[in-house]
Amino acid sequence: MARTLPPYQHGPGIQVAISDIAEYANLSPADVEAIGAELDAIRSDIEASLGGPDATYLHRVIAFQRVLDLTARLVIAGSTSRTGWVVGAVLLAYAKSVENMEIGHNVSHGQWDWMNDPEIHSTTWEWDMAGTSAQWRYSHNYRHHVFSNVLGVDDDLGFGVLRVTRDQPWKREYLLQPLRNLLLALIFEWGIARHGMHSEHERATTEAGRRAVTQSLLRKIGRQVAKDYVLLPALSLRRWRRTLAANVTANLLRNLWAYVVIFCGHFPDGVQQFAPEILQQETRGEWYLRQLLGAANFNAGPVMAFSSGHLCYQIEHHLFPDLPCNRYAEISVRVRELCDKYDLAYTTGSLARQYLQTLRTNFRLALPDEGLRGRWGLKQVN
C-alpha cells in the first residue's frame, strides 16, 4: 500500500513541509534517479510521437470553441425567453472555460510550440480574461511550476491570501479565510491578474519597470472590460441588458469552474508542501518527485477531462507541463505504474471528494494552531 502520511500527522489535509524528499518517500538516491530516468523516458517517447493527429486535435478544439462562442452569443441575442437566455449564458461560460483552460492555459505553457505556428504559440497567444498571458507565464510557468509547493518561493501556495499549511504562521486575519476563499472563487480571473502583476513587480529592478507592468495589465483590463461590458452589449442595441447580464454570468461561472479545478489539483489531502532547503542541490529525480507528491488528480472521463483543460491530470501536468494535454491520459497509465513500482502515493479521487477536502482544510487552517489541537485532537507523531 502506498504511503500517504507525512513525518508529522496533524489530521486530514493538515501537514508540515518536507525537507528531505528521498527520506520522506523511503527511497535510496539510486531509486530517486531511476525514477527520474523512467520519467525522462516517458517524456522522450511522447515528444518523439508528436505529429499531425496532435496538431489536428488542437485546431479542432480552437474551431469548436469559436463556433460555440458565436452560437452562445447568437442564442443570447436572439432568444425571447428566460430559458433561452440561460442556455446562451451557460454555453458562453463553457466556451470561455474551454478558451481559458484547454486552449489558453496549455498554449501558454508551450505545449504546442513544437508546431511552430506563430499564431498558436506561447509567446503570442493572449487569452480571454483579465490578466495578461505574459505576466501569467512568469508567475505560473516559472514561479509555480519550477518551484512547486516550496514554501516562500511558490506564490501559488494560497495565492498570497490563504493559509494552506501549518508552516505558515497563523495570523488573526486568517479567521476571515473562508470568506476570502469564497471571494477568490467568484473573482478568480481578477485574482490571477493581480497575482501575475505582483510577481512581475517583484522581478522588476526599477520603479519604471514596475510602472510598465502595471500599465500593461491596466491596458489588458481595459480591453476586456470594453469587450464584455461595453462593446458587445452595445451591439445588442435595445437588448443590451440581456447581453451584459449574460457576459457577467458567463464570466462568473467560468471563474467558479476554474477555481474548483485548480484547487482540486493543489490542495486536497495527500498533496505535500516542501521546505525551501529542499531546493539546495535538487536533482532531476528529486524535482520529479516533488511534482508527483505536490499535486493531485480527480477522476474524469473524456468530456470532464476536456472541460477541465485536462487538469484532472494535474500530476501529469506538473511532471510534464509543456507536453500536449491531449496526451495526459496515456501518460497517466505509465505514471501510475511507476508509482506502484516504487510504492509512491498517486493522489486522486472524485471531483466532489477532492474539493470537499480542500474546503475542510481551508476552514481548519483559518483557526489558530492551538484551536486546531484542542478542537480536532491533533498531535505530533513521533
UniProtKB/TrEMBL annotation:
One Pfam family matching this protein: FA_desaturase
Signal peptide: none
Classification via InterPro entries: FA_desaturase_dom, Fatty_acid_desaturase
Top-level taxon in the UniProt lineage: Bacteria
Residue ranges occupied by any Fatty acid desaturase domain in the UniProt entry: 84-348
Protein name: Fatty acid desaturase
Organism ancestry: Bacteria, Bacillati, Actinomycetota, Actinomycetes, Mycobacteriales
One Gene Ontology term, aspect cellular component: membrane
BP terms from Gene Ontology: lipid biosynthetic process
GO molecular function, one term: oxidoreductase activity, acting on paired donors, with oxidation of a pair of donors resulting in the reduction of molecular oxygen to two molecules of water
Species of the source: Mycolicibacterium fluoranthenivorans
